[in-house]
Write a structure and sequence with these properties.
single chain; 414 residues; mainly beta; 5-stranded mixed β-sheet; 4-stranded antiparallel β-sheet
Length: 414
């Protein structure tokens, strides 16, 4: 399995566990430009502070942002941080926790989840009692600060820390403990393997997600026996348990390696990205396509359509994060590389872009490049998903560059 061209945690393998209207009628361009303002609201200092975020952000009810970094902190095993808006402008960073790599975990590289009480949940790649990673909770303490609780330490056995991965559930028990239940163990065969991203529920209680490899390997010769990956559905069975069904198996031209998860629109259609695949070839990611954005139309027999195939030029290449939808059905995301390659330090592949896809007419979608990253000072390698605030501004992270070379948090204002 190839890894992305940038991996902030190259010292350790990434573990695939995540619980996380435009235009006139005469306009006929596949790539559009649109005036946006990008502002770096925080540059990570790295060595003695947070550094290299590998995932996106979450908001709390008060408008504070929370995220994790893979490295940095007091022990260089990553951090959990908060960014709070300052009266009059600007943001204040607070490091909530520096992971030690011990029982509390280390190298957090997945998106956080926040509940209605302000508790934060996430996972780490290493640490815990068996050094196979953890699921953690940080709960606000009256008077300030947070209390960490390790909800589960992975053992590297049936709980999914190794092999082809699992879908698991953590349930609170009487007395404060949490119980892990494996819903589906993956084998890496036709039903998929290595589920890297989080999952989404539909209104009927079905779960949808992606697996990096697996599927019908005959239909995906470029990936040999590993397959190009799948989109799957998990449905609760009468009497208990879950049933998995592959609703799409990628073949290469329609995408390959879906690192990001899927999102649902109001009609029940699914949207996602693949890191490779698509039309043509793309040398920055190994000559097997620059990645795609896909749509799966809802129904018992799902229909997949590629709504954008990246070229590796101004439109970007190698989308690794998930997507975000607005109320009008426009799609937003990031690519790890691509964009303007003339910036110093970004040649020949580019530093990545923030993009928008707008439904135009029929099956056609137009891409808008909202921002080209330039390495310094605005960052490079955006790998996480984007989020909106209540005013329609977009927020995200870059895993590299910025003022100190360790990544940024940015805001894009229409």
């Amino acid at each position: 399995m190839p890894s992305p061209s940038f991996s902030p945690s190259r010292r350790f393998p990434r573990i695939p566990i995540r619980i996380l209207a435009l235009a006139a009628a005469t306009l006929n361009l596949s790539l559009l430009s649109q005036a946006q303002t990008e502002t770096v609201i925080y540059s990570f200092p790295g060595e003695h502070g947070p550094g290299e975020p590998g995932a996106g952000l979450v908001f709390d009810a008060a408008g504070n942002l929370y995220g994790t970094t893979v490295l940095g902190g007091s022990h260089n095993f990553g951090t959990l941080y908060e960014l709070s808006p300052i009266s009059g402008g600007g943001w204040q960073e607070t490091t909530i926790h520096s992971f030690t790599g011990g029982n509390d975990g280390g190298l957090p590289n997945s998106p956080l989840i926040i509940d209605g009480s302000g508790n934060l949940y996430g996972t780490t790649q290493v640490g815990g009692t068996k050094q196979q990673g953890t699921v953690f909770e940080f709960s606000p303490i009256a008077g300030g600060g947070y209390q960490e609780t390790v909800l589960h330490s992975f053992a590297g056995e049936d709980d999914g820390a190794h092999g082809a991965g699992t879908v698991f559930e953590l349930s609170p028990q009487t007395g404060g403990a949490w119980k892990l239940t494996t819903l589906v163990p993956f084998t890496g065969n036709e039903e998929g393997g290595v589920p890297y991203a989080g999952m989404v529920f539909d209104a009927a209680g079905n779960l949808y997600g992606t697996a990096l490899n697996g599927g019908n390997s005959i239909d995906c010769p470029a990936r040999n026996e590993n397959g190009c990956g799948v989109v799957f559905e998990l449905s609760p069975s009468i009497g208990g348990g879950w049933r998995e069904r592959v609703i799409h198996s990628f073949k290469g031209p329609d995408g390959a390696l879906p690192y990001g998860g899927v999102v649902l629109d109001s009609s029940g259609n699914l949207y996602g990205t693949t890191y490779e695949g698509g039309a043509g070839s793309c040398s920055p990611v190994g000559g097997s396509g620059c990645g795609v954005v896909f749509k799966l139309s809802a129904g018992h027999n799902w229909h997949e359509a590629v709504i954008h195939s990246f070229t590796g030029g101004a439109d970007g290449a190698a989308p690794i994060g998930g997507l975000t939808l607005d109320a009008s059905g426009n799609v937003y995301g990031t690519t790890e590389i691509g964009g303007d390659t003339t910036y110093s330090g970004c040649s020949p592949n580019g530093c990545g872009v923030v993009f928008e896809l707008i439904p135009y007419s029929g099956p056609r979608w137009d891409e808008v490049a909202l921002h080209d990253f330039t390495q310094s000072p605005d960052g490079a390698v955006p790998v996480g998903s984007l989020i909106f605030d209540s005013s329609g501004n977009l927020y995200g992270t870059t895993a590299a560059a910025g003022a100190f070379g360790s990544g940024t948090v940015f805001e894009i204002t229409p």
